[in-house]
Amino acid sequence: MPRFRRHIKINLALQGGGAHGAFTWGVLDRLLEEEHLSFGWVSGTSAGAVNAVALADGLAEGGREGARAKLRQVWEAVHKAGVPDLLRLNPFLFGLSNSNTFAQVASLLSPYDFNPLGFDPLRSLLAETIDFGRIRASSPVELAIAATEVATGRSRIFRRGEMTVEAVLASACLPTLHRTVEIDGVGYWDGGFSKNPDLITAAMESPVADTLLVQINPLVRREVPKGAREIAGTANRLTFNAPLLRDVEHILAVREALKGRFSARRGRQGALATHRFHMIEAGRYTASLSDDSKLKPDLGLFTYLHSAGRTQTHKWIAKHLKDVGRRETVDLAERFNGDAAQPFEEAGSEEAPAPVVSSRA
Predict the structure, then answer these.
(1) With bands split at pLDDT 50, 70 and 90, how would you rate the model's confidence at 275?
(2) Which of 306, 309, 293 is nearest to 359 (CA)?
(3) Is the pLDDT of residue 360 over 60?
(4) Of 20, 103, 239, 265, which is most buried by a Cβ count within 10 Å?
(5) Whole-model pTM?
(6) How many other C-beta atoms can be found within 10 angstroms of the C-beta atom of residue 151?
């Protein structure tokens, strides 16, 4: 693998996707091996926010190797904590936790019913593994963590200087599983409802003019859902992909409006129009996984997706790293607005291998 002598800097935009965010862990793990590559802004939502703060804290604590170690520590802690820690508070639901019936039963209950004490294993996990004070004081990357205001549906972007465990919990707050996260009297739900992830802020404000999007959720699934769980999963996928599609549509509209108007390519809109985007996709791997697997912190699944993330990133580095700072490597219009005949990057006749998932999940 060639090494590039010039220093390359890039922003990161990390999509949410629950346990499927282990793919992004693999992406970051491989990127951190490139000594001449560094990061500017990191935008993240939900699981992407967890990866973002792990990256920021690890870099602040111990540089590249510190970041790789921190990401591994966080994902191993996610596996050890697991969903059952939450369900043990309710013996009835705990008895269903390894059953296909659980998702249907839990959907009929509010988290205020089955988790009256508001216990959240993610809070303990983040408090034990992430030093938010260190992030605020000395992180070498800027952060843009998205949450959604419950009252208005608008996105709220938390920056590095205001980063707390509550901000990350707000970004990852699925209202069917967790109680609303309140910060300064404002209630927040998962950032995926409004930004997943935020492409606009970094493109307009970051001094770095390239952003790598790590997309977890597949854009296209050809089969028509018929079962109740499949319908619910498809509705979830469409809901959490919609903000990304809106961001891309906005970027393309600004580019079209400013086409040929070089004097107008100044300021925030001009920066957005000229920003270069790149993408690594998990779709060829996650499209074959059940929607329920997003909520199952299974070690076999994590290992599979981490390896997949490293593999796809290795391919991207070989093909596109040299283009960063020079040209865009993803056609946003074709990728997001086309007929999606080839829905996954570098897709072809080769199929992604099936994950080995433990029956414990």
Answers:
(1) very high
(2) 293
(3) no
(4) 20
(5) 0.87
(6) 9
